[in-house]
Amino acid sequence: MEWAEGRGTTLEEAQQNAAAQLGVSTDEVSFEVLSRPGALGSIFGRAEFRVRAILEEAVERGEEPTEEPAAEGPEAAAEAEAEVAEGAGPMQHAELAEAARDMLQQMIDLMGLEGVAHIADISEDEVRLNVEGEDMGLLIGRHGATLDAVQLVVAIVANRRVDDGARIIVDAEDYRERHQQMIEQRAHKLAEEAKQTGREVVVPDLKAYERRIMHLALKEDPEVETYSEGEGDERVLVISPVI
Q1: Listed residues 146, 173, 200: the one ending a domain
Q2: Are residue 183 and residue 164 in the same domain, yes or no?
Q3: What is the DSSP letter of 234?
Q4: How many domains does the chain have?
Q5: What percent of the chain stands above pLDDT 70?
């Protein structure tokens, strides 16, 4: 073993922990700082450094770590994130994606959940993160309420750290993708009802993004039109047949 990773509440502690895994002193290795405490560390009263220690002889040979240690939490998804980054297209949001991922991982750890946050996709105006692990139901919450709250915090804090912001989507075990498919299926079913009866269908109790999903799902259907009406919690989606 010629390299190891360590964590600590101070940079020195993280370096010592990494060196101890190699059975050497800190003078015998070179260090790379992988992450520093983010804003959430101060919010929740917890800060953590993460470093990689590489034996000097490996550095002299020009060797770089080729794989991550087994079951090391956030590090387990590094390879997958690299693959996403290679084909991610607009990379001006790469810094934001990394900051958001780090924020999300801190929140997961502070919640006591066994989950790994990774970057799922980077586009021109959006960064998508996904969390994989056990007990993701606790992160998702009832009807996605906890996930929405976590997403809001991650988006606010991460966007403050960069000049070029973007919309941040936080998902867990692809919950949002499955939920979107369910909303789209419901939209098409209700559209068929509107066509067959010739009457408008009013859909209450939808979140703003759920209304948007339905609007987009039915956008190309020439036999119906959709619009929203009402204010606040009383706002509804209306699916109207085109006569």
Answers
A1: 173
A2: no
A3: G
A4: 3
A5: 75
Three-state DSSP state, 132: strand
DSSP 8-state assignment for residue 33: E
| CATH number assigned to the domain comprising residue 229 | 3.30.1370.50
The pLDDT of residue 96 is above 50: yes
Q: Are 200 and 194 in contact (CB under 8 A)?
A: yes
- Give the confidence band of 74 by pLDDT, cuts at 50, 70, 90: very low
Task: Residue 90: name the closest of 129, 120, 119, 121 by CA.
Answer: 121
The answer to whether the predicted template modeling score (pTM) of the entire model surpasses 0.70 is no
Instruction: Report the share of the chain in percent with pLDDT over 90.
Output: 32
**DSSP-derived 3-state class of residue 187:** helix
- Among 60, 81, 98, which residue terminates a domain? 60
Which residues does 196 contact at the CB level (< 8 Å), separation at least 6?
A: none
Let me know: does 170 contact 149? Beta carbons within 8 Å: no
Name the phi and psi angles at 71, rounded to 5. Answer: 50, 50
Taken in order 120, 126, 127, 133, the sign of the CA dihedral is negative
Structural domain including 17 reads 3-60
Identify the residue with better confidence: 56 or 7.
Answer: 7
Q: What is the pLDDT of residues 30-49, one digit of tens each?
A: 777 777 665 445 444 455 67
